[in-house]
Amino acid sequence: MLPIKLNADKSPFQRTYANQIKRCGEMARKLRFFGEQMTKADISPSAMPVTRTHIDLDDLEVKLGELEAELIEVNSNGEKLQRTFNELLEYKLVLQKAGEFFYSAQGHATAQQREIEAHQVGDGSLDSPLLLEQEMLADPSKQVKLGFVSGLVPKEKAMAFERILFRATRGNMFLKQVAIDDPVTDPVSGEKVGKNVFVVFYSGERAKTKILKICEAFGANRYPFTEDVGKQMQMIDEVSWKISELKTTIDVGLIHRDSILKNIGYQFEQWNHLVRREKSIYHTLNMLSLDVTKKCLVAEGWSPVFATSQVQDALQRATYDSNSQVGSIFQVLHTNESPPTYFQTNKFTSAFQEIVDAYGVAKYQEANPGVYTIITFPFLFAVMFGDWGHGICLLLTTLYFIIREKKLSSQKLGDIMEMTFGGRYVIMMMAIFSIYTGLIYNEFFSVPFELFGKSAYACRDSSCRDATTEGLIKVRPAYPFGVDPKWHGTRSELPFLNSLKMKMSILLGVAQMNLGIVLSYFNAKFFRNNLNIWYQFVPQLIFLNSLFGYLSLLIIVKWCTGSKADLYHVMIYMFLSPTDDLGENQLFPGQKTLQLVLLLLALISVPWMLFPKPILLKKQHQERHQGQSYTMLQSTEEMLELDHGHSSHGHGNEEFEFSEVFVHQLIHTIEFVLGAVSNTASYLRLWALSLAHSELSSVFYEKVLLLAWGFNNIIILIIGFIVFIFATVGVLLVMETLSAFLHALRLHWVEFQNKFYEGDGYKFSPFSFALLAEDED
Amino acid sequence: MGFLVTTLIFFLAGVVASLSVRLCCNGGPSINLLRFTLVVTATVCCWMMWAIVYLAQLKPLIVPILSEGE
């Protein structure tokens, strides 16, 4: 059922169920958050054996809120722990590397000390300044106290770090850096960065503050370090123990989070589905209006006539299931609004109906061009594509799609694949017809075959001397099915085929346009529009057929009699000088008279299309308004409904602007008259594309495959074959298919449909839970 | 085989096709009508195409002139 918005005049926020929709939106947000968390943790929502427990929406809301709070807390705790863990790891590294450095430095220092002592012993009491120096060295209180800062700095900033430290302390510092081989996880950013352990020695308070600031600026993490060797070992042990403890805590935290997410995962799909359904139900409820007593909801909608009993059954079931005391009332309303259009299609016809709907959805109850499109669209495609080899390739491809239909329809395919898969039945029809027209044009990858009997042409004499100058002669009756195979590759092939295909295009075009005009007759008869029958259908039919129907007749007569008449000449002089003698352009006796008659018919059909209809419409309108009309039953019904004040939408303009109607009719007439010429010429694209296809195909065959064959070298043959395959698939099977598809589509949408199609309806799109899933995805 | 004979063959093929479609898958009046329309349209289209090409070759005004080197 398609619901109509009754609350269209209220803003979205005033509507009754706005709050409910907000709640559903909140819940949907929480579910999305869970979904993201689950993808981050690599947990996919599994479908546990679905226990169809009915979940109340309020309970779900509370539960979702709790779960969200819990997850957020677990996440933030996890992050804090992880950060501390990384800091400890870094600290451990600092302890190790700096410890090594101090140890080796100590070794050097003791060695130097021993040297100096040895030196001192050797020198004795000769130099007092030396003694003084020594004393100074030995006196710890007079020693300048060196402080140091140890930590980690990222490798890429190490050079800049060193330089700035040097400049800031005016060289009064000593920096020792040791690179760490493996990258370390930085506690702040959480990424793995290559770092260096550094130790900076400085003297003085000011230097210390400067160095600390520089460390902060460079994001170098500082860690305390003791000089005492014993304490160092103790620190290392302590840090190692803390690290292992933290690791266990973090692991436990992760397991806890994963279990929460898994629990969510079991019911994720179900919750998602439920929230989406509730939201859409509230959206639909918003379209209803509250009754005056505020006790019941009123809904207006469209439903197909055949489904009336189903709707009533469903309403009864709903009343029963919800234990309500008052049943729902289902009543058929009469309205002047135009209903939506609904065509029941199956998987085969739906693609063709979509092609028609893409141009415009049919007005309610007008003739559906889709019926004919199922056959004529692939047929016109095939006229332009005509090669049974290519047709077989297309058919195989599309059969693959059709055979694996069930599997592919549940998968998610890419955009182009999706379109190709959706149109698989269209392409199948196109391929079948292409095989047929390919057999008629006698082209198999541009190679003709003598499949249907012997060719009609042979040499004049046994020596075939003048085969290249005078040509062959027709010795047998015409080739029974299709184009004679002898034509291919001859010098006169193109003139013959061009003439054939152009005349074929005209004949097919006139046939399709006549079909369109006849459909307009059926439309007019159905809607009981006599004006349209007598003052639109009849003159249109006469005009089109007296000109182009006559041309088609001339073509057929010329073919049957083999006359040499020039049809261009005949048609043009039919207009320019109709009373002139035809001479050698005469195809049948009485032609001149016939032409005069047809010309006169065409000339009077133009004002016949133009004038009577507006005048009669005006007369009808006047009669209606003077209440004198007895003829049309519709008008009395309309008057009754006016009295009841039933329909809120007006039924058409009550004013009748004669000039407007006349101009409308004038435009329609001009469009038809000029369109008769232009549309007929437009059908010549059937010739143009089929010529292009056959020429391309023969070029690829002769200039690639035969050329490669001529070299008698297997490698060149293989390369030539591969190039031939790629060219055929890329240009002929893909590009030409798309091109012919497009042109056949245009011929249908414009030349065929503008003869009868209104196409200003709207589609019946009923509310459906099944479509929800597709919408969200 | 002659124009009329082949036209008759096409006509008979159309009749056979519509009968077989009706007999094998009967789906209610409107669906049957749809299928009948489709079969008739297809037969008419195929016949038209064949007839046009056949008639064009009945009494040709030009003949194949072979190109050099054939």
From TrEMBL, chain A:
List localization entries.
Answer: Membrane
Q: What is its main location?
A: membrane
Q: How does it sit in the membrane?
A: Multi-pass membrane protein
Per UniProt, the keywords (alphabetical) are:
Coiled coil, Hydrogen ion transport, Ion transport, Membrane, Transmembrane, Transmembrane helix, Transport
Positions the record marks as coiled coil are 50-84
Q: Please give the superkingdom of this protein's source.
A: Eukaryota
Q: Which Pfam families match?
A: V_ATPase_I
Q: Which GO biological process entries does UniProt record here?
A: vacuolar acidification
InterPro entries from the UniProt entry: V-ATPase_116kDa_su (IPR002490), V-type_ATPase_116kDa_su_euka (IPR026028)
Transmembrane domains' residue ranges: 379-403, 424-441, 504-522, 534-557, 593-611, 714-735
Q: Name one GO cellular component term.
A: vacuolar proton-transporting V-type ATPase, V0 domain
A Gene Ontology molecular function term for this protein is:
proton-transporting ATPase activity, rotational mechanism
Biological role stated in the UniProt entry: Essential component of the vacuolar proton pump (V-ATPase), a multimeric enzyme that catalyzes the translocation of protons across the membranes. Required for assembly and activity of the V-ATPase.
Family to which this protein belongs: Belongs to the V-ATPase 116 kDa subunit family.
Name the record gives this protein: V-type proton ATPase subunit a
Gene name, Swiss-Prot/TrEMBL: LOC105043215
